[in-house]
Amino acid sequence: MASIVPQTASPGSEVFVTRHGAFVVRSDLGYFLQTLDFCSGQDLKIQPLHPACRGKDHYVGDPSSSTIYLLHQDSFCQVTDLNSEPPSDVFPLHPSCRGADQYAFCEGYFFIFFLSRGVVLCVADLATGALIKEIHLEPTLLNGLYYFGADAEHLACFRMDEEQRLCGTCFATTAGHKESFAIHPDVVSFLPGGLSLIYGAAFGQWQCLKLLSNATDLPMPSSYAISRKVGYSQLELGLKAHVDESVSPEFLTVSLLQRQFALPAVYGGLGLQTEQEEWEEAAEEEEPLRVILQPRQKLYWWHYCLGLGKTPILYCRSLKITRNPSPPTNIPLPPAQV
Q1: Distance (Å, rounded) from C-alpha 228 to C-alpha 301?
Q2: Are residues 90 and 188 part of one domain?
Q3: CA 308, CA 201: separation in Å to the nearest integer?
Q4: Is the pTM of this model over 0.85?
Q5: What confidence tens digit (pLDDT) does each residue in 16-75 have?
Q6: d(CA 103, CA 73)
Q7: Number of folded domains in the chain?
């Protein structure tokens, strides 16, 4: 079963909460999702990131205010709106606060996760390292994919449960109590790798378009018209109903699909680059064919398509001819750039 891509493997992808709601940032796409909360998906809206807010390593929200901290390399700044240009004031990160896997904010403190070392630090100020101390979380809380401050008193994380479903876990830093919560499908879809959890893992396969055969003992000249689809068979994402007027729903959907197909198989992708393919609405095309079939010969015509679950989505231009019913073994698309 596939997983979403963890934040550690997808810099610039982030989840956080402020007093204005719950957010998912996709810096790679240039958009962010905002909703009332991750469970209900109410008041969900997808908006463009301001160009100056793109490309950050971490986005950390304060659940009690409007403040969002943008961390990049060894510095950070504060904003209240991801649609607007950040202020010019940039602060250095204290050496003890640098290079962490993830960051979160609640209780007036920053929580800094060094997951590979199993260490979590708590600090009052990212610039000075004031009141820094190590806190101890139970081991099961150190396998989260995304961490954030859920409210003024609780942290939370997204993780895969025992049945390999994405869920949220809310927990206090000083007690063992924790509580699980569901994540709305539209929120899951917007996360890196999330389409595979909702629609099924990506697949790529050769489909047989036509079988040409000559059952006689004589060569047989023939003319054919091979009909096939080329292009994108639109996927009806629930997200499309919630985009800002400045966002093209189809462009957003195509961008999400291209990223999904580019991911490795462990995240429900194929590791293939598809930007060069025809992403216009799928249309039927005819390929004229003149061929001389030899006695008792069979020819199989194939085209390549990609999809999610069991649903074909992208019909590629690549055609292949074989003399046996087994599909071709080559993949006609380049590997994704890692």
Answers
A1: 10
A2: yes
A3: 5
A4: yes
A5: 999 999 999 999 999 999 999 999 999 999 999 999 999 999 999 999 999 999 999 999
A6: 13
A7: 2
